[in-house]
């Protein structure tokens, strides 16, 4: 099959699948779904995830790094926030901790799952995964600060009983989160953009030459000519459609998820974990594909950028929504989750500091994610 034919077929399915997933969202919105309908929506959800990854890569190829990873991270997070607010509005008192559970799950999945998988794949392909320690370290510091301000401090404040902020404290956390997020974006895209660009690495032994004479692993995606502005805009629009479909279809199947979690006798926090896993699928796949091409820095941009966006945009949105949402807003983490967060920050700092990582570091992060998932199911 020729390259032109292969790309044409890709364009066909990536155009069709988001639209079908959006139709499934419209037809299922606000309805109680039968098991067969849930299965069909789940298939549409999976297809929309794959389409979102494709269109995100097209946009990223056009705008370059670090803007490419920023587009996907922000787009996913904005729609994730809308999903959280919608579920909290519909969920009543049992949804009071949904924002905390989902945001913390997103932090653990991005900082341990996406980062760990990316380091494993990068090290498998190049023996050592190399990245820019300055940019990744700055991103990690921002994640740690945002997580501590928004998810740890509420457990220890005394203005309100329980792991809650007072109105003034919540307003401060929202403003601080937005300020830090804006500052990080300015540093990442303008003032120190070079800190977030992929590091040129020596290819592993046995790698063959790409079309332009550079070494590669058989994937010529990085060496192809960038798409036209029109193609990039179309992909950006389809990316938005696909992400809306991902989050909307996730909401459509969420009652089934909640019922299954309750029937299995699992903690309600598992719902937030499952939602975060579904919503972060596009970024996870995009990060792994970037790592396969030796662009580990792009993968780390996606991982840490998603964590920053998840906290930096969710907390202000929840603070605003709390004006009309009834019931308490529980943000503070419990002791077990605080230990996991502290361990994640320490291990991540040790991983990032050298600017190089092996299979061991990737494996450590994956084990941390596995510990979090296991303890979420069996607290």
Automatic annotation (TrEMBL):
Residues 199-223 have a biased composition (Basic and acidic residues). It comes from the Bacteria. The keyword Transmembrane helix applies. The chain crosses the membrane at residues 12-30, 36-55, 67-88, 103-124, 136-156, 168-187, 231-248, 268-288, 300-324, 330-352, 359-377. Residues 199-224 are annotated as: Disordered. It is a multi-pass membrane protein. Keywords: Membrane, Transmembrane, Transmembrane helix. It is found in: Membrane. Residues 36-189, 235-376 form the Sodium/calcium exchanger membrane region domain. Pfam families: Na_Ca_ex. InterPro entries: Alkaline_pH_Ca-Antiporter, NaCa_Exmemb. The keyword Membrane applies. PANTHER family: SODIUM-POTASSIUM/PROTON ANTIPORTER CHAA, SODIUM-POTASSIUM_PROTON ANTIPORTER CHAA. This is Ionic transporter y4hA. It comes from Streptomyces caledonius.
């Amino acid at each position: 099959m020729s390259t032109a034919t292969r790309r044409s077929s890709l364009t066909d399915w990536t155009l069709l699948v988001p639209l079908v997933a959006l139709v499934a969202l419209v037809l299922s919105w606000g309805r109680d779904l039968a098991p067969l309908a849930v299965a069909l929506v789940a298939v549409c959800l999976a297809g929309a995830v794959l389409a979102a990854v494709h269109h995100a890569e097209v946009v990223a190829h056009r705008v370059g790094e670090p803007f490419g990873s920023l587009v996907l991270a922000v787009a996913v997070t904005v729609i994730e926030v809308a999903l959280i607010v919608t579920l909290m509005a519909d969920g009543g008192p049992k949804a009071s901790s949904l924002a905390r559970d989902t945001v913390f799950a997103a932090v653990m999945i991005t900082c341990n799952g996406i980062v760990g998988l990316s380091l494993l794949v990068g090290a498998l392909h190049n023996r050592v995964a190399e990245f820019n320690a300055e940019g990744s370290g700055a991103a990690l510091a921002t994640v740690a600060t945002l997580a501590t301000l928004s998810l740890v401090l509420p457990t220890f404040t005394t203005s309100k009983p329980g792991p809650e902020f007072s109105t003034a404290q919540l307003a401060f956390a929202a403003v601080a989160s937005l300020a830090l997020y804006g500052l990080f974006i300015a540093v990442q895209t303008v003032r120190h953009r070079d800190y977030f660009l992929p590091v040129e690495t020596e290819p592993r032994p046995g790698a063959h030459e790409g079309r332009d004479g550079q070494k590669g692993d058989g994937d010529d995606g990085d060496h192809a000519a960038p798409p036209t502005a029109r193609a990039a805009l179309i992909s950006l629009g389809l990316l938005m459609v696909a992400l809306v479909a991902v989050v909307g279809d996730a909401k459509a199947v969420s009652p089934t998820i909640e019922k299954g979690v309750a029937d299995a006798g699992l903690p309600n926090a598992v719902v937030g974990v499952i939602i975060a896993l579904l919503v972060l699928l596009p970024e996870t796949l995009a990060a792994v594909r970037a790592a396969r091409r030796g662009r580990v820095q792009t993968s780390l941009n996606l991982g840490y950028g998603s964590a920053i966006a998840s906290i930096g945009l969710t907390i202000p949105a929840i603070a605003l929504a709390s004006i009309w949402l009834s019931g308490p807003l529980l943000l503070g983490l419990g002791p077990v989750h605080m230990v996991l967060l502290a361990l994640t920050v320490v291990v991540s700092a040790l991983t990032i500091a050298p600017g190089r990582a092996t299979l061991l570091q990737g494996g450590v992060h994956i084990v941390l994610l596995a510990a979090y998932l296991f303890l979420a199911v069996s607290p």
